[in-house]
């Protein structure tokens, strides 16, 4: 059971959406590559452990004597496990407690990297009367990550070791453990104080919506199509496409959304868009100047055939 799953910060959400629409500056480009690689690694770990026993949490940022980030926390059988996910690939050599790549990229002592986070987690749990034995591990999730000259460490885990974690998590969640991680999650800080968003000009961006599953651009709707299918197999209806387009444009533009903009992003006709928007969003202005903003009372529940689901940007696909 996951008490909390990944929720992108405002910076990450914007950066992932703007990527591919406009040329990023050098800083944002480097940040995108780092953050995307990290997310993919964490997503892989999530997929491996999501059906196991234990009580789990993905993504926790605490402001406790400074900012500290935790990728995964798992409570099982009296232990609180902290897993710090690393998604590196390629050949590395173990030199002076560091992992050094063939291109001389250095992963500085991975144990020291999370030692501070481990100590803060222990202190935070003590402060809030969460009585668990705490163990922290660095998990090198990528099967293509190879290290020579390394004899192993009890707190460093590689891809081949993950089955051992999966097989060990067998006990079901209990109310005490759920309450403990719920307590921790209440202190989560969505946005980092170290992240600043540089907003790129909306008018210069590539139009279109991205697949909720694979994040690749979807083609536009043609004629009377009721839904389109992404190359990854994800089906997107007109209703969902309109909601995705609204969220995308509002995020990129940082302003209200016009019907014509949703037409440009989806290829869906104005009449259909206006019908969906009028039911789910608040409007401002009149006639030609009419635009839409998020409604505080909108539930965004979409009904298709006999299925009912709530739309949101899908970062985790169960």
In short:
This is Nuclease-related domain-containing protein. The chain has helices spanning 10-18, 26-49, 110-127, 162-168, 175-185, 238-253, 259-266, 270-280; strands at residues 2-4, 55-63, 67-76, 79-86, 90-95, 98-101, 106-107, 133-140, 145-148, 156-158, 227-229, 235-237, 281-284, 291-294, 301-304, 307-310.
Describe this structure in words.
The structure is a single chain. This protein is of the alpha/beta class. The chain has two domains: 184 residues, no CATH class; 104 residues, no CATH class. Helix content is 33%, strand content 25%. It contains eight helices and 16 strands. The longest helix has 24 residues. The chain is globular, with a radius of gyration of 22 Å. InterPro entries: NERD.
What series of H and E elements makes up the topology? EHHEEEEEEHEEEHHEEHHHEEEE
3D shape:
globular
Structurally, how many domains make up the residues? 2
Instruction: Identify low-pLDDT runs.
Output: 297-318
Number of helices: 8
Largest sheet: 6 strands, mixed
Tell me roughly what share of residues is in helical segments: 25-40%
Structural class: alpha/beta
- What is the averaged pLDDT score? 91
Strand segment tally: 16
Strand order of the largest sheet: 1-2-3-4-8-10
What gyration radius follows from the Cα positions, in whole Å? 22 Å
Termini, distance in Å? 12 Å
Strand percentage lies at 15-25%
Protein name: Nuclease-related domain-containing protein
InterPro entries: NERD (IPR011528)
Domain NERD: 37-141
Pfam families: NERD
